[in-house]
Each structure stands twice: as C-alpha cells, then as structure tokens.
Amino acid sequence: MTTSLFFIQLINGLQYGLLLFLIASGLTLVFGVMGILNLAHGSMYMVGAYLAWYFFTHTDSFLLSAIISAVIALSIGILVERTLIRQLYHRNHLDQVLLTIGMIFVFNALQSLLWGNDPQGIKVPDLLSGSIPLTDTLSYPVYRIFVAVICILLAAALYYTINKTRLGMLIRAGESNREMVECLGINISRLYTIVFAIGVMLAAIAGVLSAPMVSIVPGMGEHVLIACFVVVVIGGMGSIKGAFVAALLVGIVDTFAAVLLPSIASMVVYILMALILLVKPKGLFSN
Amino acid sequence: MLFQKRSERLFIWIFFPLMLMMPLFLDGNIFYINKLSSILIFALFVMSLDYLVGRCGLITLGHAMFYGLGGYIFYIIAPQNEAVNFWVYTFYICVISAAIALIVGFLVLRTSGIYMIMITLAIAQMFFYYFSDSMEFGGIDGVFLYLKPETSFLGIKMFDLDNPTHFYYLCLFSLFNTLVFFKVIMASKFGRVVDATRENPERTTALGYNVFVFRLASYVIASALGAYAGYLFSMQYGFVNPSMLSWQTSGTALVMLILGGMGSIYGAILGTFAYEGLHYFFEHLTEHWMLFMGSAIILMVILLKKGIAGYIEKLLEKRS
Amino acid sequence: MSQVMIETEGLCKHWGGLKALDDISLTFADKELHSIVGPNGAGKSTLLNLLCGTYKPTSGRILHKNEPIDSIKPYAFARRGIGRSFQKTNIYPSATCLENCAIAAQRYMGGSFNFLKPRNKEPVLLHIAEEALHKVGLGHRKDTVAAAVSYGEQRQLEIAMVLATSPCVLLLDEPMAGMGHEESALIIELLKQLKKEYCIVLVEHDMDAVFELSDLITVMVNGQHLVTGTVDAVREDPRVKEAYLGQGDEVY
Amino acid sequence: NETIKIGVMLPFSGAYAALGSDGRNGLRLALKEHRERLHGSNIEFIEMDTEARPERAPEISSALLNRHKADFIVGPVHSGVANGMLRTLRNRDTIMIVPNAGSAEVTGALCAPNVFRTSFSSWQTSYPMGQVAADKGYKRVVTITWNYGMGRESVDAFEESFTAAGGEIIRKMLVPFPRTDFQSYISEIASLQPDAVFVFFAGSGAVQFALDYDALGLRERIPLIGSGFLTEGTLGAQGKAAEGLVTTLHYADELDNPNNVKFRELYKSEYNRDADLYAVQGYDAGLMIVEAIDQLQGKVKDRQAVIEVMRNMTVPSPRGDFTFSKAHNPIQNVYLREVKDGVNRVIDVAMPALEDPARGCNM
Amino acid sequence: MSTLLDVKSLHTLYGSSHILHGVSFSIQPGQAVSLMGRNGMGKTTTLKSILGLVTPRSGTVTFQGEEITQKETWRRMQLDIAYVPEGRGMFHNLTVKEHLQIAARANRKGEKHWDYERVLKTFPRLQERLNNLGTQLSGGEQQMLAIGRALVTNPELLILDEATEGLAPLIRKEIWEVIRTIKDSGISTLIVDKNIQVLKDLCDQHIVLVKGKVVFDGSSERLINELETVESYLAV
Ligand SMILES: Nc1ncnc2c1ncn2[C@@H]1O[C@H](COP(=O)(O)OP(=O)(O)OP(=O)(O)O)[C@@H](O)[C@H]1O
Ligand SMILES: Nc1ncnc2c1ncn2[C@@H]1O[C@H](COP(=O)(O)OP(=O)(O)OP(=O)(O)O)[C@@H](O)[C@H]1O
Ligand SMILES: [Mg+2]
Ligand SMILES: [Mg+2]
Known about the structure:
The complex is a heteropentamer. By secondary structure, chain A is mainly α. Chain A has one domain: ABC transporter involved in vitamin B12 uptake, BtuC, CATH 1.10.3470. Chain A has 11 helices and 2 strands. The longest helix of chain A has 31 residues, at 3-33. The radius of gyration of chain A is 19 Å and the shape is globular. Chain C is of the alpha/beta class. Chain C has 2 domains: 1-81 and 167-252, Rossmann fold (3-Layer(aba) Sandwich), CATH 3.40.50.300; 90-166, no CATH class. Chain C is built from 9 helices and 10 strands. Chain D has helices at 17-33, 57-67, 79-89, 122-135, 149-164, 183-192, 203-215, 235-238, 258-271, 277-295, 303-311, and strands spanning 3-10, 42-49, 72-74, 95-98, 115-117, 140-146, 168-175, 196-200, 224-227, 246-249, 323-324, 330-340, 343-354. In chain D, a hairpin with a 2-residue loop joins strand 12 (330-340) and strand 13 (343-354). In chain D, helix 1 packs parallel to helix 10, helix 2 (57-67) packs parallel to helix 3 and helix 4 (122-135) runs parallel beside helix 5. Chain D is globular and about 65 Å long. The chains are: A mainly alpha, B mainly alpha, C alpha/beta, D alpha/beta, E alpha/beta. Chains in contact: A-B, A-D, A-E, B-C, B-D, C-E. The A-D interface holds A 2, 4-5, 8-9, 12-13, 15-16, 108-109, 112, 116-121, 123, 131, 133, 135, 137-141, 143-144, 213-220, 223, 254-256, 258-259, 262, 265-266 and D 13-15, 17-18, 21, 173-176, 178-181, 183-185, 187-188, 190-191, 193, 203-204, 207-208, 211, 215-218, 221-222, 233-234, 236-240. One magnesium ion is lined by residues 44-45, 87, 173 of chain C. One adenosine-5'-triphosphate (ATP) sits between chains E (14, 17, 19, 37, 39-45, 86) and C (147-152). Chain A: This is Branched-chain amino acid ABC transporter permease.
C-alpha cells in the first residue's frame, strides 16, 4: 500500500467511524447512559432517512425536511416513552428487548405501507455538492466532510452535557437509582421522556444526514443496529468519550481489514470487540 | 416432586398427551406434522436458552451459534453417502459442541451482563461469517444433507426419519426428555448453586463457590442441547444454512422465551408455540403481518408481567 | 495465648493515590474476638475485604495458619474456613431464609456437582441451615422470602449464613448496624458463645458491644494502625479518644 | 371446473420486498389478461412471504406442496431460498417456476424436469459484457462483487469471455455480503487505475456502489460496467450517479417491441406504477402457466404433460420471444444498455439467443 | 402556626401482608420527632408511605395544610421535604461532588442555608473524597454524603431513616449536633434511630411503633416518665 493510499484509507476509516458515531450517538444516550435497551434504534434511523426522502420530494429543501423529520422523530420518541417504555422501568431488562423488537416489526410494516419497498435516494443539497480533489483520480465530496464536522460537534456537545451539566448528572443518577432521584424532588419521568425522545431524534437525524449518501431501503436500520451496539459496548457503557473512540476504532479497523484481510473482513469488527472485552471486560472507558 | 408448581403439572398433563395424539387428528397431513415438528425442535432450543438465561442469569445473544453448529458439525463429520446411526451421531454432536462450548464459555464467562451479551454475539457472528463467507460450506446458500440417519438402537429400529410422523415423535420424545432433564438438574444440589450464582454471584463467591465453574458447566450443558436441536432441524429438511447461526435466530429465540416466561422451562414451549402460532395466523391473514405481529408482541409485553407462564400461574393462584 | 489463625505482614491497599490501608501488620488468634475500630473511612472494611480475598492487596502478605494466602482465588478463602458477613446487606433476596442458609451449608457439606440428588432431600444439610437461623433468632422466619423481612432481620440472616458455612474464622463487618436492641443483645450473646470456638474479627461502631465482647481491640486511623490493646488500655488511650471515641462524656 | 392452485413464494417484507411484490403483480397480470384462455378453471393464489430467509424455504415450500397441493409454485427471488425450495420440490408432484433467482445451480447441478426458470442465469447476464468490454478496447479491468454465489458466478462469467478476448483482470475484489460500505474498495480501485471496473451488485448494494463511485469522483474517470442489475430498479435512488453506466441484461424498460409496449401499458394502468424486470419475469411465469392450461385444456394434474408442453413452449415475453434450453433456462437475447437521463437505453443486442451452458446438469 | 405534617390512620400493605394498621401522628413546625420501634415494626414503611414510595391503602398525609396523599413523590419532595433512606441510596455512577451538585437548590422560600461548601465543612472527610464515586466510599462516608445530599435541598422537613447507622462515635456526635443546629434554625426533623438516650434529649416528641400501630406518642417529659414501658416496647 502506498503512503497516499494509506492516508486516503485512513480518511475513509475516520469518516466511516464518525458516521458510525453519529448513528450510535442516540443509542449511547438511551442505552449507554439511561440503560434502556432500545433495539428499535436502527428502525428510527431508517424512519429518519425515509422521512427526509419523503419531505425532500415534497418540499425540495433539505434543511426544511431535516427539521420536519427531527420534530416528527421527537414526537414519536415522546409517544413511545410515555405509552410503552415507561411501563417497563420496574421490570426485567429483557422485557425491553421484547417490546422494542415488537416495535421493529411495527416500524417495518409502516415503512412498507407508507413508502413502499423501492430503494430511494435524495441528492446532496446544492450548497454542499462540491468535491475536493485528493489524487488525480480520486476526489472527496464536501457533503461528507460536512457530516464529519457535524459528528465531531455532536460528540463534543454530548460529552459536555452528560459529564458536565446538572442535566447530565441527573440522567446518570436516574440510571443508577430512579427512586432516589425522585426523592430529590426531580420529575424523573419527564426527564426520561425527554432524554429518550432526544435519543430517538438523534437516530432519526443520523438517518436524515445519511440520506444523501446511502441507499434508502427497507431493513437499512437492522444493518446498522448491531454496529451501534458494538460501538457503545466497546467504548464502555455510559461513556460518550468511549463511544467516540470506539466508533473511530471500528471505522478504521473495518476499513483497513476490508482491503488488507478480505477473507476475514466481516469478522474483524467482532474479533476486535471480543479481544477488547477479554482484556477490558467493561469496555475501553469504564470506571 | 419434580414438578412442583400446579401450573407446571397442569401444562404437562395437557400438553404432552395432546401432542401425542396430534398425528391422529391431523390425519397424516404432512405439512402440519412437519410444521409441528419444527416448532417442537425450536421449543427444545428455546428451552436450552431458558436454562441459560432464566436459570443461570447468563444472557446470551449467540446461542444460535450452537443451533447452527449442530447442523454443520453433522455435515462435516458424517460421511456423504452412507446412512449413519442417529444415536451415535447425537452423541458425537453433543460431545463436539460441548467441547466448543467449553472453550467459548471459558472466554465469554469472564464478562457479565450486557458485556456478555455482546461477546457472545461477537463470537456467534464470527462463526456466522466463517460459514457464510466460506466456499466449502456453500456460503450464504448453505449445504444439503442427502441422507438421513437411521435410528436403530440395540438392533431395534425405533424411528424412520423419512416418515414425518416418526420424525415428529422423535422430536416430541426429545423435548420431553429435555424438559425432565432440566427439571432434574434444577431441583438438584447443583441447581441450588446455579440459583445462587444467578441471584447474587458476589455472595456466592464469598461463600466459597467457584462461580465460574458452575457457570461454565451450565453453559456447556445448554450449548450441547442447543446443538442437538440444530441437529434435529437440519435433519428435518436435510438442509443447513448459515442463517441458523445468525443473531436474528438468537433474538427470535429470546423473544419466544420472554414471551413464554423466563425461568420456568415449560414457558419455553408456550412461548415458541405462541410466537409461531401468531406468526402463522397473521401471515395467512395479511401481507402486512408484521404490523399485527409487532402490535401483538407489544401488547403482550405490556399486559403479561412474567410471560404466559407467569400469567397462568397467577390465574391458578387466584382460583385456589 | 492461643494459636495464631491469621496474620498480616505489611499489608497495603491503594486506590489510585489513596492509601486506604498502609502497612498493616496484625495477628488474629484462634478463640479470640479481635475488634477493629476506627473513624469512618479508616480502612476497616478494606482490611476485611483483603482478609477474605475480595480485593487483592497492593503489597504485603496474608498468612492463614502460617501459609500465605494472598494469591489464592477469592472463593478459596471461604473453603479454608474464612467466612464473612457484609457491611451492606448481601443475601439472596428471592430465596427463603432457610434456603439462604442451605446454600451456605451446602458449600461445606459438598456434593454441589451432584446433578441428580434433589436439594430438599438432605435432612442433615437442612438441619444445619435451620440451626444457624435459630442461633441468630430467625427461626420463625425460615420460610419467609428474604426480601420480605425487615432490614434488621436481613442483618441477622447475614450472620446466620456465615455460621452455616461452619467457618473457623469469622470476619464480621458491622453485624449490629441497623439492628434493634433486642437483636443486638442476641448477637452479642451469640458472639460470646462463638468466640470460644472461633477466631472472630469484628468491625463495629457500637462501642458498647465492642467493649463487652473484645479480647483485643485494634484502632485504625486513615489506613494506619494506631494501637492494639485490651479493652481498658484502648478505652483510656488519649489518641483513641481524640481520633475516635471522643471525651467519654457522651452516649454513643 | 377445476381449481388450479398457484403457490407464490416471494419476499413481501425485508430488503427484497419490492422485487417480490413486482413479481407477484406480473404473475397476476398475466392470468388476468388471458382469463379467457384458462378454459374456465378457477385460479387460486396462495401467497407466502419468504422474508428472503433461506431457513424458512423448506417449510413454506412443504406447505405449498403438501398442505395446499399447489399445481404450480412460483418463486423465489433469492438464490438461497431457491436452494432450500429445490430440496423439497425437485422431482415432486408440482411445477416450480423460478421468476428471478439466477444461481447457476437451479438449472445446473440441481436441475430437474419439474423446475423451470423464466428469468436468467447469472452467467447469461455477465458473459456478454466480457466481449463488449474487449470491443471497447479495455485491457485491464478490476472486478468487484459481493462474496456470494451470484456475485462470484457473474464475475467468473465476465472473466471467461473477457480473458478469451484478450483482456486482463488485474484485481478481483470480493466484498463480504451484505456489506454496503464501499468507500475503501473504491479508493483502492482509484489507485489501481484500471481501464474499467466490472461489478455485480443488486438492490441497495447497487445503489450504494453507484453513489459512492460517483461521490468519490470516479464515474467520469474510470468507466463503470456491469451486469444489468446495477441499474435495474435502482435508477430513482441513484439519480445522476447512474448516468453513463453501461450494463448487459436480458431486458430493458425501453425495449421497442409490441409485447413490451402493451405489457407496460397494462401494468401501469393496473398497478399504478411502472413495470420493471421483476414484473416481466413474474409475468412470463404467468404466461407459461396460461399457455400450459390452454394447451392442456385445464388438465394440469398430469405433470408429465405439463412439463412436455412447457419444455417446447415459446414464451411471447415483453423481452422478446424466448424458448427453453434442455436445462429449462431461457434461451434469450441479452441487450447492451446505457443509462441516459435516468433511463436504461438499449444500444444494441450484446448477444442474441444466448444459451446458458448448464454446467453440471445431466437431464 | 399550623401543623407541618399530619399523618392520619395510614394502612399500608405489601401484597397481602398488612404492615401499617392505622398509623397517625403529627409534627409541628420546628419540632424534632423521633420514630422508634424494634426491627420490622414498620418504621421504614411509615416513612415511605409519607413520601409516596409505597402507596397506602387508606389514610391521608397532609403537609403544611395541603393534602398530598395522591401526589407523586417528586412533587412532595418539592414541598421541601428531604429524605435520607436506609441503605443510603448512593448513585454508583456519580462522584461525591456530583451527588451534592444535583441535589443543591434553594427552598420554596428562596433560602439557602445549606450549600456545597457548608456540607464539606461539616463533613471534612467528604472533602477528601470529592472525586470518588458514590459506591467507592466507606459505609460511614456514604451515610455522611446521604445526609449532606438531603441538607443541600434546604428542606422544611428532614426525614432520616437509621440516621447514624454505621457512623463512628465522634461523627455520630457530630450528626446529633447538626440535627440540633437545623432544629434550632427552625427546620423540622423526623428521625428513625435506635439510640433512645440521645433521642430523648434531642427530640421534642416521640412515637413508638409496635406491629404497625402507634403505641406511644408523647413529649420527652412523658417519655422520661414512662421510660420503662417504652423501653419494653423497644426491648431495650
Ligand atoms: N473502590 C474504591 N475506590 C476508591 N476508594 C475506595 C474504594 N473503596 C473504598 N475506598 C476508600 O477507602 C477508604 C477506606 O474505606 P473502608 O470502607 O475500608 O472504610 P471503613 O473503615 O470500613 O469505614 P466505615 O466505618 O465508614 O465503614 C475510604 O476513604 C473510601 O473512600
Ligand atoms: N418489600 C416488601 N415486601 C413484603 N414485605 C415487606 C417488604 N418490605 C418490608 N416488609 C415487611 O414489612 C414489615 C415492616 O418493615 P419495615 O422495613 O417498615 O420495618 P422497620 O420498622 O423499618 O424495621 P428495621 O428497623 O429493621 O428497618 C416487616 O415485617 C417486613 O417483613
Ligand atoms: Mg466499613
Ligand atoms: Mg427500616
């Protein structure tokens, strides 16, 4: 591998990693920090992409469709938490698995009912449609750089909120002992509703931002779901920093494995995870 | 008594006699008999998962790995064009998968909770991709087994596996044995420690038990039985496919288990039947069966606190 | 003085920069009750956790009957007869009180890898378990689920479980915390009996109990060994008064 | 009047759902259009969702065969499912018509008298491209596909004709199925600087590959050619990223023949969406059934007769008439197409009446 | 001034076991009240019923003249009630500092007698452990933190369950001093503890529970007069 190709692949890996973090960010919040096992996370990613596509074809404005999609996702999040998730806080964690698998079924059915099963795509917003030449054959699209920047900003914002603000502390405290948080006079239910909804919205926003880069197809959510869990767990539950590092690690390892070790490429991420967990049984950045 | 709860006895007295007579009602309709056989096989698989999850508190998302391995091991070790003995190969498959489980368990049981879920998933995915990216095992299209084993034991031929009804009884027989087997284990002194390791592993260590060894033993037992289920499945249609090892298979089994009620062992049967029943029903009702299936699952989680088995127990409690 | 059961040599435990235990050398003799007291955070629980293998020492050695045991596995401590109770209640909440003790008793009765023997068909084992319950005054609760008994009773159960393992060394971390007078008195009586047979290490803030029971008292402050002596010696030691007891004019 | 049962085994949910429903629509359309040729038989459809899950295939096909006693079973889309179906349906008392799955085995090693295919073999759709590429003067080509049966078969077929015509494959890339993150592979391709890139991808993989290839700026610099699935049913999602891609396939939406024009019109008015390849293949399966019923005057219980009729049939397909090879695979034209303004334009017939070599079939 | 907390004939059940049989008592503003009883008599259950952590089958709880029986727990706590639970209720993923930060607030009157600094001054041990996680503290340190966490909410009514459990004698003395100070500053306290010697001096009023019933409810004077009876209830 030449040096220039090495750097290009490194950039590819970083970019893939950042995208992974974007998709996993909502899960880090809902699963890592709040401790809710939401398997329907991938479905919300899919819903976000479809919403973006749907409103884009109707409004022709990427920004507008992004905003509408985010608002809809937020409302779905609030609704789901209020009516369903809330019933399960006092129960076994596995009930959340069952519930959210039920939700995957429902989201898949609704997607097929509302939007059909054809692959869809939307074009990159004009403002960001340029590209920057890297070598004489290869160039890099501006939109992807834009998304990478958003991911970094998002990571910083999440990190700050969870670790440094009172809100973040309350969310963490809720994961540890809901009853006690309530005993401090805090409306933990409402707090959890909001944070859960934000998690869902982040998943959808990831879908929106990915929409111009990926094919929007049924089942796209299930493909990313496992990758998201891998990222959150390798990083260490509840650690934003961990998730960020893990996403980049997975992105880079996966990218290089694809070209250097094609025979075991699909296994490499799992080998990585197994090794990390055997050495650090609670992930990279756990207490 | 082995079956302590009233609900349990009731279930066993209704379920097994009913299933014994089922082929009579079905009047040799091959489809229904085959369908029931595959449900029984899967119930056996879910039961072995229940032992791990519900009894040992070891949640895994990689149990399907053994389900698939059951099939692939058979494909690998059995000669291509010679019918082998069923019981001998049952033994081989259980031993080989137990050996694999011993190594895998040795690694995965170092972690716990969500980390264990993920590491079991990781190892299962490795096996999944090993088979699905391989050329010699037919890749994602899987492989075929052209000959079914024969089942003579001490010179007596008990089941003719090409006959769906015989195969059905073999499955039922296996399921019943597995149920009794798990019940005996759980009521035993070993079971007492298993219960302890689930509830409070830290305390159990402080009392002087090597928690790891007990978990490992349980993991090996459950995995061998999971592989046995996969072996039966691959034999039913003579067909092994990597999707048997996929995390979706593990997930589905987990869903059935939670639906049926964890930790009760017989709940596994209830859950499998309920899930498959709903699936079959909605699928024939509408093309958008997923919508109904999903809603039914959601409703059931919300309404049933401890799965179907828990619900039945509550009903009986109220009446007495 | 009777035989030395457990001995520590220069035991240290550091948490990051914090020296929770700093160079502790103590001996605990058989058939003696040796109390460890000290202000909160002095490192008493840490010491017990080291003695029973829950934590590994940063440096230093632990000897049990003159054999070093600091590198054996946590569960092996209990097998050598080193039993402990926890400061924070640590039981099997969904099992009955009797079953809680039966689990403990089975460890030393053996047969835990017996897959076939029904667990409730072993009278000797159940008898031991029941006896342990009676000793701590929980006989009437034997069929109650442990989660449903009150906090104080759970503390009693905690001790019953240690007794059921038939230990030779008892490490008790604040066994009386949360217990009422009556139950405390019961435990004090019980410990008086037990110390005739066992080596007991007691961590407790209830000074009435400590003074009444102890053969020896060790005072620790900030991870360091302050003084070891008899009840009277420690009671009157000005350093102990300053660091821990106060001036003696107050009720505890 | 007899009831004729047609079992339909297609994916109606999951990633292949669109393909499944188009195939089903085509099938239904054929039977509806030619109602009067059915000799008054009642047609009953039994539709089963395969979810594209191979492990369900034996069970569902067993249901159609044993429980419903279907006379014809149409399906599936997915090759893995096809393998599972063949296991239960080969040489049984029913007629299996495969409306998509292109795996070589279906009319190769696993061929059987009662199994027909109305679609294609993967060999057929890629073999002609080797010749085309050589004619265009490409010398050094990189191939890339998913590491699964169809992918490998397609690339091998391309290689077969391309190397025969003097070309060189400088790198064969196999992407683990169903990965759709192609950026690193495309970067690698850029550094190899080949004359062209041959791909086999379908569905979301095809969309994603075209999008990434375009986004990284290679579309204008290194020609992208492939089996027609690269641009089939995916153009809407690919947008301008598909412009100029050259592919070979046994059909194109724009094919200018009366059957096609009529079919597309009918389809549009019936289902309110444009027909595509999968609809055509389903439609042709329907035509086969209609023709068989018509010729046998509704007496389809005699499977031997049905097989006899089908084997000698000329199907008046929208893709142009085709007949069956000994292995029951279509002998058909393969067209050379190029995407212009979001449509697959037919440039030429790449190879006329191409027959699959049916390796491994001893029928 | 009117009654601060008024509890009227609470009946509470766990499943089918009836634990509280009509518990009634009241607390006047500024009073310190002790709640005593042997193990398992229902002290904790009474406190939890007041706070809404368990739902009583019948009976009412009135705080500052407002009935709160149907309110969610967090609304009750916002009326400036603070709670130190038995077992301490630490957050395993928050540091000592964060424990205090999330709890700190002014009360409804806008007063802020207790803040972060004052707690650390009162419990210097915590100062040294600021970056430890809640569960990485010694038992006594946890108890200090739990009390500190309750104080920084600047309550009108402070409820302590097993107030001095696991504390060293000196610290225990310290806690009693603190409680005396807050009592002097007009804050009411409801204390569960077993140390009758201290409580009889510290508290104004005393309640004794036996098997879910109030068997004694009176002032310190009465307590001293009837010390023997009460001690028999407590089995001292
Ligand atoms: N896991 C840990 N990580 C970091 N520090 C710890 C950890 N566990 C305990 N400590 C610290 O070590 C010191 C000693 O704690 P230990 O529990 O031994 O005290 P103790 O003497 O038992 O006190 P108490 O009487 O309050 O129970 C304390 O200051 C505590 O904060
Ligand atoms: N979750 C529960 N389920 C069933 N019963 C319970 C539960 N919690 C407590 N109890 C029972 O309620 C009774 C009162 O318990 P409570 O904890 O209120 O006692 P307490 O007076 O606080 O005792 P202690 O001084 O030991 O803390 C006890 O007999 C206990 O067994
Ligand atoms: Mg301690
Ligand atoms: Mg209490």
